[in-house]
Amino acid sequence: MTSATTHATPGPLRRLNWTLLTGMCLLIALGTAFIYSACSIRDVAKLQDLYRLHAGSAAAGLAVYLVLACINYRTLVRWSWVFYLGALVLLAAVLVFGRVEMGARRWVFGVQPSEIAKLAVILFVAWFLGRRDASRDTAAYLATLGVVAVPVVLVLQQPDLGTALVFVPTVLAMLFASNTAPRAFWLTLAAGAVVLLLVVAAVVLVETRELKPGTEALVRRATCLTDYQQDRIANFIFPDRSPHGGAWNKRQSEIAVGSGGVWGKGFRKGDQNLLGYLPPSVSSNDFIFSVLAEEAGFVGSLGVLLLYALVIGTVLAVAFTCPDNVGKLLCVGVAVMMFCHVFVNIAMTVGLLPITGLPLPFISYGRTCLLTMMAALGFVQSVAIHGRESAPCF
To answer: Is residue 8 part of a domain?
Structure first.
């Protein structure tokens, strides 16, 4: 006689991908520590408290992360169109009610909708391309580009070119992973490369040639960039163009990173930060890696890069093992979005890319960005937990 034994399926929290969770928490802990280092010497009490706000946001984000992990992502993506429309409403509200800070209008109701919109677009595109009845033709490809074009245009109106550009590789990677209209995909890449070269050529032309005022104005308008965006590109191409003006932060960041050496100067001992060469308005967010590199050196910087590689690699591993297309595309979108933030932020601090306002995930101060990135990994965790369960029709 054989006795049948039943094994209860362990709860969602018992099936957590601990590599993903641990890597994320370590990055948040590093962020809290170096935000404290960047702001502890400031005279303004609000700046001194940023590390507490970062830690508090992380605690709230962890709750969101665990809730999303417990819910089957297939249930959530059915409502992705609601998230997408809500993000568009918030982006439109920014242009009407948003407050202006540092020449841009990016915040409304205490949040930065452009960060929320990136995750909303990933969810919607994953649902649209991953459905079983989704077509794989040019019409689906063009429809996907239309989906991403609307939030990109709204973000560009703020203006926020850096954030707008993150949408493009994220969605293109999802289109590539879904094998949607391969010929149209490669044509889009070629057209984008040509446009990029023309924009750079226009900026170089204005900087190196004595053009008539009318001709210069025409060339500048043809780039479709604001004056300060063109200046950032020019400062990158010509580093000595404005050493005490627009290129100041870039040069001081490079000095901070280089002066850290192999082992760094020690926690809260970075001269560039302590002496104010890295302005307090940027040292805790866009240029937090400069503070980290100066104080922790090459070894500490390499450790941070390895942590990011661990997290992003784990997200891709979840994508490769997920049996359904929606979960796979969702993970690909999150991985590429995170990689863009990490690559662009660190590249700009070491002088490999023009300055742009992209935060470093989990380490830079920024509550909306932190919560959005944690929510994104919460969706990935849901894919890791529920991906192998029987999938309902979308």
So the answer is: no
- Helical packing angle, 248-259 and 288-321, nearest 10°: 80
- Is residue 361 a contact partner of residue 342, using CB atoms and an 8 Å limit? yes
What confidence score (pLDDT) does residue 4 get? 41
CA–CA distance, 110 with 101 (Å, rounded to integer): 13
Does the residue 391 lie in any domain?
A: no
How many CB atoms are closer than 10 A to CB 376? 26
**pLDDT of 63 strictly over 90:** yes
Q: Is the peptide bond before 159 cis (omega within 30 degrees of 0)?
A: yes
How does the average pLDDT of the chain come out, rounded?
88
The burial class, CB within 10 Å (0-12 / 13-18 / 19+), for 14 is exposed
Three-point CA angle 369, 264, 336, nearest 5°: 30
303 Ramachandran zone, left/alpha/beta (phi>0; psi -120 to 50): alpha
10: in domain: no
Q: For residue 200, which of 173, 236, 172 has the smallest C-alpha distance?
A: 236
Residue given tokens 């429309």 in the structure block = 85
pTM flag (> 0.85): yes
Of residues 376 and 388, more confidently modeled: 376
The conformation of residue 353, written as its DSSP 8-state character, comes to: S
HSE-up of 359 (CA within 13 Å, CB side)?
A: 22
Residues 380 and 315: beta-carbon distance below 8 Å: yes
How far is Cα 58 from Cα 46, in angstroms, rounded to an integer?
18
User: How many domains in the chain?
Assistant: 1
The residues near 35 (Cβ < 8 Å, ≥ 6 apart) are 50, 51, 54, 284, 288, 363, 365
Q: Give CA–CA dist 392/394, Å, rounded.
A: 6
Residue 2 within a domain: no
| pLDDT digit string, tens, across residues 163-187 | 999 999 999 999 999 988 889 999 9
> Domain range for residue 132?
16-386
pLDDT in tens, 297-353: 999 999 999 999 999 999 999 999 998 899 999 999 999 999 999 999 999 999 898
pLDDT of residue 6: 43
